[in-house]
Design brief:
Layout: E1 11-16, H1 23-37, E2 44-45, H2 53-65, E3 70-75, H3 81-90, E4 95-100, H4 115-128, E5 140-141, H5 143-164, E6 166-171, H6 186-190, E7 194-198, H7 200-209, H8 216-227, H9 238-255, E8 261-266, H10 271-276, H11 281-289, E9 294-295, H12 300-313, E10 317-324, H13 328-335, E11 346-351, E12 364-367, H14 369-375, E13 385-391, E14 395-404, E15 410-419, E16 429-434, H15 438-447, E17 454-458, H16 463-472, E18 478-480
Amino acid sequence: MSMNNLPKVKCGIISVSRDCFIISLSENRRKAIVDAYAKYGTLYEVKKTVENETDMLAAVDEAKKAGCNALVVFLGNFGPETPETLIAQNFDGPVMFAAAAEETGKNLINGRGDAYCGMLNCSYNLGLRKIKAFIPEYPVGTAGDLADMIAEFQPVARTLLGLKGLKIITFGPRPQDFFACNAPIKPLYDLGVEVEENSELDLLVSYRAHKGDKRIPSVIEDMAEELGKEGNPYPDLLERMAQYELTLLDWMEAHKGARKYVAFANKCWPAFPTEFGFEPCYVNSRMVSRGIPVACEVDIYGALSEYIGLCVSGDAVTLLDINNSVPKDLYEENIKPKTSYQLEDTFMGFHCGNTPLCKLKKGGVKYQLIQNRLLENGGTPDITRGTLEGDIAAGDITFFRLQSTAAGELRSYIAQGEVLPAATNSFGGIGIFAIPEMGRFYRHVLIAKQYPHHGAVAFGHFGKALYDIFQYLGIKDIAFNQPKGMLYPDENPFA
């Protein structure tokens, strides 16, 4: 499925030059970066080089007319402090600043640009004007170095553009006692994210209005093709699920309003299966495969985190419970002989069935065992059917979350690890996760900082980009799984 709910980044580069330096040095260095970036894609080269404020206005106008929604301001030499920072002030989009390294010791007269020094004054002026900008970890390099930095800026820019155009649509309050899914919404508005809150009844009315929709047969056909015969034991259920999928897609288009992108946070139990006649998990998994997260249990910050993960990775994500410990016998038999992980580094990530099929080793539609016990007395499942279940495929992952505290303060965590190939021997969309020093991270971040049970999962290692994004957003508390020997502030050094 195509992901049409994510921004497409068109990045431009503007070179700046201090008027007492040779302008061609900055221009030639800019062209070298554009050429070096060709291995990643196209970088729009703004021809106007900025020496003063008038040049700045012309260059920004050129970038806007070219359709650029992200910019790199390149100090090809020392650079003019005021005009170069005003580029970011006048451009409506994420901006990266970087500086040229000197190329050769054989040409340090006319070939010396002093951008290393100019970058310091640039940063001072950005702070003076309270301008947000992306600055790489070491923002000075050759053309090849800077091309690599600009490539790393793209997922950051895509995420920032996505958040700027995002609306989170909710249906229903959190389930009873799920206080962890209830968080203040004001910090979302502080980030520039809109929220639309609806009741479950609104969703039910819309769902019923879609009964007999002429598009249902084609969605059923698509579902059947995706699942295959083995993964589709309840073909009679597909009509209900197709009807629901169309309901969400139509609601999205009708309600996005002035926003470009949408994420959902929906109440999925206990009333949903009773009134809709199925579990929504498989449909949710298909939506996120299109770049449209549907967070379980009205977890608005889970939906936000998922959307960030989609933008960063450009790939499907999931939202999972940090669910259960790995039994010692399973660890001893299937994990310890093949890895260097300790038992406390492992846990099982689980949810009923929202993880996309493409991220499962093998999956199919099943029924929600826990809800079946509650709503159908453990009998033959009907209304509790609709989960997507299977072991999550092995590979690298990043477990992360952006969350508001009850006091309205944003904080986050990021932990890189992997899904192990060991079988879970359990139910749901589930996998055995291994994160270095997870036991300590669990105690001194997840518990100590009172994070909820849901975590977003991106399939790959994206910690660097996520950290940059959270820093850009002004998140002061960005926790990570600290290596052995690096103590958490509240960790007992004698334990």
